[in-house]
Design goal:
The chain is an alpha+beta fold. The protein folds into 4 domains: about 100 residues; about 120 residues; about 80 residues; about 150 residues, Heat Shock Protein 90, CATH 3.30.565.10. About 55% of the residues lie in helices and about 20% in strands. A 5-stranded antiparallel β-sheet has the order 2-1-8-7-4, with helices on both faces. Strands 10-12-13-15-14 form a 5-stranded mixed β-sheet, with helices on one face. Strand 1 and strand 2 form a beta hairpin. The longest helix is centred in the middle third of the chain and has 61 residues. The relative contact order is 0.06.
């Protein structure tokens, strides 16, 4: 605390007063003098170690000089050497203890930075903020802006250890690694200064660390301004941050499990929307056929072909049945009107928000890899900076659309898939191409025709391979689109997003 230095001086003044005029080299006197050193855990750390040893040496010199003046020749050179060696040994022990305390404190600070993710509402579903905080804490503790960025990659063991970006302190679109990079990192658990290309930047000074958690393997990459200093390598910086990195791997795994749960909930929500859409179609069908029934009831009201002797009884029954029919018809029509009223449909008006292009890209990439595997092709074509590109859409609707469309590609496609993002000045387009079997050509042609036929979409109750959800997503977000067939075997969907430049997004 703030009085520790004062207590330190007070202890040495008291000990010096007691030993004044006595031989400081005698074991029991020397032991009394080094008690503050032995108890240095109360004084060391926070840069008090130098003061501790400075006061000790000063007290020892004062006691030695005064005793030598009072009794000259009582202290031999061997006594002095033994004393110096003892002090040096104690200094080494104290330095090692202080270092261990600092390392432990360093680890605790990193762990706290990661734990902040679970208690800070502003960081929920934004893991990149945790990566940035870890970078800041590392630089703060080593008093050097050494680390620039931190990224996490997943090793896809099924595709020759292909690395897939999980998250990072800054979003990246493209990345390349030197040959046998993953194998080299995994063999030693870490690697210093590999050749890594992130977007258009090449890094040759970095630290890569391997973490295995259950059946998933991660590689964390610290980009640095220069090669990690020798003293940090001697200390073993990779061992110091290992526990924090392992905790980050655990929370990223938890994020994945949560995301899969949310995807499953979105799939259920998609099924619910289909049910509502089909219900609306059914009510359209019923309502259109209730008109003739009402006309029949009007005709029955004026019919008088019943024999005279039975007309009174028939009229009473007819009037009773007509009244009941009218009531039932009114009830059915009211319910149909309620279901057909868009303001009553909880799925019709989905809130939109400003979403960053990186979120659009990463959501698409995650969905593609989940359903089609990490070998699926995703190209990004752009000329200018894309850091300030936003689009105003419903992120939930976009995710549901992707899950519905891509899962249908997985079920009905022939394995040929290609996708690309094309960024222009005022718009960017998402182009998805997937092959389909020749026997499905007629069905696909009918589905494309339905995309422009609004009423048929509303009343259609059969499987539309996701065309219905595409229409809903496009119309609710006012997006332009084009769907076509290439070479009689490839379905091509192009969606155009209007770019909005605004820093106040919800990413």
């Amino acid at each position: 605390n703030e009085y520790s230095k004062l207590r330190l001086l007070n202890d040495f003044l008291f000990i010096t007063f007691i030993l004044f005029g006595k031989n400081p080299i005698i074991s029991y006197n020397f032991l009394l003098l080094i008690l503050p050193l032995i108890n240095s855990i109360n004084f060391s750390g926070n840069k008090k170690t130098i003061l501790l040893y400075a006061v000790f040496v000063f007290s020892l010199v004062i006691l030695y000089v005064t005793y030598h003046i009072l009794q000259p020749g009582s202290i031999t050179q061997i006594d002095i050497v033994n004393t110096v060696v003892t002090v040096l040994v104690l200094g080494v022990v104290e330095w090692y203890t202080s270092l261990r305390l600092k390392v432990r404190n360093f680890r605790e600070v990193l762990i706290e930075a990661i734990d902040e993710y679970y208690v800070n509402p502003s960081m929920i579903e934004k893991p990149h903020l945790v990566f940035r905080e870890v970078v800041n804490e590392i630089n703060d503790k080593i008093n050097d802006d050494l680390v620039t960025h931190l990224y996490c990659f997943l090793c896809d063991k099924e595709v020759n250890n292909k690395l897939i970006i999980v998250n990072g302190s800054r979003f990246i679109y493209e990345y390349e690694f030197e040959e046998n990079y993953a194998e080299n990192v995994k063999s030693k658990d870490f690697k210093i200064d590999a050749n890594i290309k992130l977007d258009k930047n090449i890094s040759t000074t970095n630290l890569s660390m391997y973490v295995k958690l259950e059946d998933r393997e991660y590689i964390f990459v610290f980009l640095t301004k220069r090669t990690i200093p020798v003293y940090l390598q001697i200390i073993g910086i990779q061992r110091v941050v290992k526990s924090a990195i392992y905790k980050m791997a655990k929370f990223l795994t938890g994020e994945r499990i949560l995301r899969e749960f949310k995807d499953e909930e979105k799939r259920k929500l998609s099924n619910n929307r289909k049910y509502v859409d089909r219900s609306i179609g059914a009510m359209h069908y019923i309502r259109n056929r209730l008109g003739p029934i009402k006309n029949v009831s009007k005709v029955l009201e004026v019919r008088h072909k019943v024999p005279a002797e039975k007309s009174e009884e028939f009229n009473e029954k007819l009037e009773k049945e007509l009244n009941q029919t009218k009531n039932e018809l009114n009830n059915i029509i009211q319910r149909a009107d309620y279901l057909l009223e868009k303001s009553n449909n909880p799925f019709e008006n989905v809130a939109t928000d400003l979403i960053h292009f990186s979120k659009i890209f990463s959501t698409f990439k995650r969905t593609i890899y989940k359903y089609l595997g990490s070998t699926a092709t995703i190209d990004l074509i752009y000329h200018d900076q894309i850091d300030d590109i936003y689009v105003e859409i419903s992120l939930e609707g976009y995710e549901i659309f992707l899950i519905d469309w891509i899962s249908n590609i997985e079920k009905h496609g022939d394995g040929n898939f290609k996708s690309e993002f094309i960024v222009e000045k005022n718009t960017f387009s998402l182009k998805i191409e997937n092959g389909f079997p020749e026997k499905d050509l007629a069905s696909v042609q009918r589905l494309i025709a339905e995309l422009s036929n609004h009423e048929r979409i509303e009343i259609s109750s059969r499987n539309t391979y996701g065309i219905n959800q595409v229409y809903k997503f496009l119309t609710r977000n006012n997006l332009k689109s084009k769907i076509s067939i290439k070479n009689s075997s490839t379905l091509c969907l192009v969606i155009e997003f209007e770019i909005v430049k605004n820093e106040n997004s919800s990413i």
